[in-house]
Amino acid sequence: MDEITSHHCNLNIWAHLPDEVWNRVANIYELMPGWKGYIDGIPHWFGQEDDDVFIQASVEPSGLSFYARMNQSDWDSWIARVKSEATKVLGFEVGEPEDGFM
Question: Which domains, ranges and CATH numbers included, belong to the chain?
Answer without folding.
Answer: 13-91 (3.30.160)
